[in-house]
């Protein structure tokens, strides 16, 4: 008897083995999943190690900023001497709005009394530490002590300083501006920035001529003017250091 036909392909023992397919998930337990680190739960999250460094850097920057700002304020303000005291930078001059053309204004001038010579930042001075005795107002043929003249400025005087070699006609013109009772000091001063310089407390005008039309305007504005620290204080009656 003939053998029955066999199916084509490999024999039963020769069929290729296939990888098992995905298994259907089994029944899940009820309730929340296990916490991190628990057997069967998700692995615990690792905190980034950069966070503490970022926080520390921000705190350090704030400390440096605050500390540096405090130190800067200390050196700029607490350690800065008062304006007008010896050893300080001179107050900067500025033009005050509405003022006479060419007049320079100086603010922050000390009014302290001192027995020591003062190295004034302006020449001639317009204020600052000065002698306890004022200078009698009037006309002087010789140079006067600046420390006493500044005290007169504090009382409202105008100091008309002029070059010692000023021509006689110009000198006579300036001397004629003084009348008894005027708050004027007129005297020669060497090495002036101009032939004639008008100074009041905190105000100064440098001129090239004794005929400048701003001279009477300066006197009417600043002789006992609003800038005077002690208006009405005397400008005469002092026996020392000089008399007219």
Explain what this protein looks like in three dimensions.
This protein has 244 residues and is of the alpha/beta class. Among the domains are: 54-83; 104-222, Glutaredoxin. It contains 4 helices and 6 strands; from the N terminus they run H-E-E-H-E-H-E-E-E-H. It has a 6-stranded mixed beta sheet with strand order 1-6-5-3-4-2, sandwiched between helices. Helix 3 links the parallel strand 3 and strand 4 (184-188). The longest helix has 29 residues, at 50-78. The radius of gyration is 46 Å and the shape is globular. The protein starts with 49 loop residues before the first helix and ends in a 22-residue tail after the last helix.
Beta-strand portion reads 5-15%
Average pLDDT works out at 77
Helices, by number, come to 4
CA(first)-CA(last) distance: 167 Å
Structural class: alpha/beta
Tell me how many strands there are: 6
Order of helices and strands: HEEHEHEEEH
Indicate the CATH class of the domain at 104-222. Answer: Alpha Beta
CATH architecture of the domain at 104-222: 3-Layer(aba) Sandwich
Low-confidence stretches: 1-31, 68-90
User: What does the main sheet amount to?
Assistant: 6 strands, mixed
Organism: Nocardiopsis sediminis
Pfam family, one: DUF3105
Biased composition (Pro residues): 22-43
Protein name: DUF3105 domain-containing protein
């Amino acid at each position: 008897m003939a053998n029955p036909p066999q199916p084509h392909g490999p024999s039963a023992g020769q069929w290729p083995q296939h990888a098992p397919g995905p298994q259907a998930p089994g029944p899940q337990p009820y309730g929340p999943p296990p916490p991190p680190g628990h057997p069967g739960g998700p692995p615990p999250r690792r905190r980034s190690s950069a966070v503490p460094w970022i926080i520390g850097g921000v705190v350090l920057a704030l400390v440096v900023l605050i500390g540096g700002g405090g130190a800067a304020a200390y050196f700029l303000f607490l350690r800065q001497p008062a304006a007008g005291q010896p050893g300080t930078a001179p107050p900067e001059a500025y033009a005050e709005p509405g003022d006479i053309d060419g007049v320079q204004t100086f603010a922050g001038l000390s009014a302290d009394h001192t027995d020591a010579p003062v190295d004034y930042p302006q020449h001639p001075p317009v204020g600052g530490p000065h002698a306890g005795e004022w200078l009698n107002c009037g006309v002087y043929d010789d140079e006067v002590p600046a420390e006493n003249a500044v005290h007169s400025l504090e009382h409202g005087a105008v100091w008309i300083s002029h070059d010692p070699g000023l021509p006689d006609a110009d000198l006579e013109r300036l001397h004629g501006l003084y009348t008894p009772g005027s708050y004027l000091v007129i005297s020669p001063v060497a090495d002036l920035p101009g032939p004639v310089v008008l100074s009041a407390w905190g105000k100064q005008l440098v001129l090239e001529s004794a005929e400048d039309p701003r001279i009477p305007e300066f006197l009417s504005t600043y002789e006992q003017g609003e800038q005077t620290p002690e208006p009405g204080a005397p400008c005469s009656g002092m026996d020392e250091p000089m008399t007219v």
